[in-house]
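User: Hey, quick favor. My workstation is busy. Could you predict this chain's structure for me?
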Amino acid sequence: MTMRLGRRGLMGLGVAAGAVGLAGTPPRAATTTRKIALEEHFSTPELVKRGLVARPTNSETLFADIERRLADFDELRLAAMDAAGIDLSVLSVTTPGIQGMTDAKEAVSLAQASNDLLADVVRKRPKRYAGFAALPLQDPAAAAGELQRCVKELGFKGALINGQTEGHYLDDDRFLPFWERAHDLGVPVYLHPGLLPDKPAMFAGRPELDGPVWAWTADTGAHALRLIFGGACKRFPRLTIILGHMGETLPYLLWRLDSRYQLQVGQTLAQDERPSTLFRRNFAITTSGVFDPAPLAAAIATIGEDNILFSVDYPYEDSNAAAAFIENAPLSEASRAKICSGNARRLLHL
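Assistant: No problem, here it is.
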C-alpha cells in the first residue's frame, strides 16, 4: 500500500473515474495495452471485525471509501479495472490480515475462511479475478497445507504474506515447511508490507515516517534481504519472491549491497554468491504504488524487463493513474506488453 497525503487530500483512492488529490484528477489512460494486476486487495467482514485492516490515513472520509472498495467485488472494482484496461486482478487479503493474529488456531480458521470466500469470488468471474492465498504462518505446517489446498483445489496462483508473523520474519528456520511447499508447488510468494513488530527509535516523534510513507518500505526491504542473507534463495533456487512498490528500493542498491557485503566478509565473492545475483534470480517486482517512469527505467536497467510486472495497489492507489503511467512510460510496445501482462502470464502460469 502506498498513500500520499497532502494539504488537500490523498492521491489515489482507486475510484473508477479517478481520484482527486494534490494534482487534481489523473489523466485517463489509453487502454490499448491489456493488463494483469497483481497487488489488488480485499477485506472480509471478519477481518474488519477483528481489526485486521490497516488504516494508512487519518481521514475518516478517505478511510470509509477505502473500506467500501476493499469489500466490493462488483461494480466499483470492475469499473476501475475496465477504465484502466485491466483484464485480470489477482486479489489478496489486505494488510495485516492473517499476519496480525496471535492465536494460531484462530489464524488457521480465518485464513481458510478468507481463502474460501476468495475462491467463491474467483469462481463467479474467472476471467476477471484470480487469487493469492492468505496463510496462517503462526503454524508453518498448517500454512504449507493451506497453500497446497489453495493451489491444488482452489486454483490460486501463489500466496501473499503481509510482513512478519508474531515478530518472526520468513528467514526463520521454523518456516522451512512453508518454503519447501512453495518451492515444490512452483508458485510465487508475494512479500507485502505488514505491521512492524516494534517501534524503532528512528521513527519516534515523527509519525509521518510510520506506515507506508517509509516504515513499511524499510521493513519489507529488510525482510527481503533477510531471505537473501539467510540462505533461502540458495536453498530454494527455483523460488520466486515478488516485491511491490517498484521493489521496495532494493533494485537501486544492488551494487552497494554487493560492495558492502564483500567488505563485511573480507573477500571478493563469486558471482553466484552476491546479493545482486540472488535478487535478480529469485525476485520479481511490481509497479504497485509507484507510478513514476524514472524508477521504472532504473529497475529495467538493473534487473531487466522480464522481472517487472504491472500492479495498481487498489484501492489504496488509483487505477487510472496506474494505467496512464504505464501507457505513457517510454517503453517499446514489446516491453510494455511484457510488463503489463506477459510476465504475469509466465510467472503465474496463466
